[in-house]
Amino acid sequence: MSIHATDDFEPTRKFGWREVVQSVVGLTIATLLLIYVLPRVADSSWAEILDQMSLVGAGVATLMVALKLIGLYSYTFTLTGSLPGLTHPRALLVNASGSMISNIMPAGGAVAVAITYVMCRSWGFLRRNISTSLVVTGVWNIMARLALPVIAIVMVIIGPMDTPAPVILGSTVAVIALLVVLGFFLAVIYSDTASHVVGHSLGWVAKPFSKRLKAGANLDKLIQDQRGRWGNVASHNGLKMTLGLAGMLGTFFILYYVACHTVGVDLPISHLFAAYAIRQLLTVVAITPGGLGITEAGTAAVLIAFGADPTAAAAAALLYAVVTHLLDVPLGALAMGIWWLGPKTPATHQLDNHGQLVPTAEASTRIGGADATSSDEVGRAAGQEVGRAPVEEPPGNSGH
Fold it and tell me: What share of the chain is helix, strand, coil (3-state, %, to 5)?
């Protein structure tokens, strides 16, 4: 028995004028923040900032692009850990595509989740397994971005320089939020009472905004169905996922370090890490695509507070944005093209209903109709608005 993408097709959101307008507005705000706010924060001019950026040579540019690619590949270990049966090349396509969407649309993370869902369904993954992956990787990413300022504040406190107030405030908020997120996730997995409270409460809050919940979908039932699978993936592949995420963030910090020193930001590594950590924390601000503009101004302000040359700080923030934001667009477009035109051969193995990695046909047989009926409003919500054409049975060398 093979798995067809049509076994339990989930309609996905159709891209229309609303999404186009959102992207244009978001990118316009980001551009205005970069053009007007960044120079003001640095008390500099664009001519001075661009002159500082001219220090970047071909060798450094090549190194930064290589680090970017290494970082993207490192994250494939997190994705393959959260979705057993997913190969690293396919995980790289998912990562690059999602990164592109996140960086061109405000609140693009939701659309990136939908793209991930559609891509994984085209490779025959069961909805249960995809939604488990989406939830677990989401929690891992949030906790990582909250943990970075915590690590940074420790490094700075034991260092020789005073800690700026924004770093202290950001780290304090991160500590509190990290404990809340971690406690919430563990409570839902290991406590029947807590999981039911969360399911009923979130269902009540989200119902006015969800067509599926209004139609009678049960969010608490979804959580009860999924919580064992979340715990199973986290316990068996948590280390692999953590190392993959640490590899990506660590590689990107090296990239940030190279960018700073290339344009003349001369600060101890602990303080550069603190600025980088605050930048990662600011990426959760969804006013602009990927926090573009907000993260650059905020990072430059932190570097300046640490004593960096203002113009060099602005140049470093802009240079890092060029590599981590703008480079995502061609890379993501290439990844989407490879997926669209490439073969949709079903995954050979995936998790069954008991969390065991088995051949795909066996996983489908063990789960049976439950995958199509009791689970995955997470997958449904993720994909309920990206294109109305159904996903046909995986074709040979053609896309949807």
Answer: 70, 0, 25
Burial class (CB in 10 A: 0-12, 13-18, 19+), 21: exposed
Distance CA 97, CA 99 (A): 5
Distance, CA of 68 to CA of 254 (rounded, Å): 10
Between CA 118 and CA 104 the distance in angstroms is 19
Residues 6+ apart with CB under 8 A from 62: none
R_g of the chain computed on alpha carbons: 22
Residue pair 379/35 in contact by the 8 Å Cβ criterion: no
Candidates 369, 370, 278, 335; CA nearest to 119 is 335
Q: Along the 400 residues of the chain, how does pLDDT read in single tens digits?
A: 333 333 333 434 445 566 566 666 666 777 777 777 777 877 888 888 889 988 999 999 999 999 999 999 999 999 999 999 999 999 999 999 988 887 776 666 667 888 898 999 999 898 888 988 988 898 888 888 878 877 877 776 666 556 666 667 766 777 777 777 777 777 777 777 877 777 777 777 766 766 666 666 676 777 776 677 777 888 888 899 999 999 999 999 999 999 999 999 988 888 898 889 888 877 766 566 667 777 888 888 889 888 899 999 999 999 998 898 889 989 999 999 999 998 888 888 887 766 677 787 776 665 544 443 333 444 444 344 343 333 333 333 333 4
What is the helix (H) or strand (E) element at residue 351, kind and residue range?
strand 349-351
CA–CA gap between residue 142 and residue 173 (Å, rounded): 13
- Distances in Å between the alpha carbon of 388 and those of 3, 124, 254, 332, 395? 21, 18, 42, 22, 18
* Alpha helices, DSSP H, located in 322-383: 328-341, 360-367, 370-373, 377-383
Half-sphere exposure of 349 (CA within 13 A, CB side): 8
Q: What span, in angstroms and rounded, lies between the C-alpha atoms of 125 and 85?
A: 9
pTM: 0.76
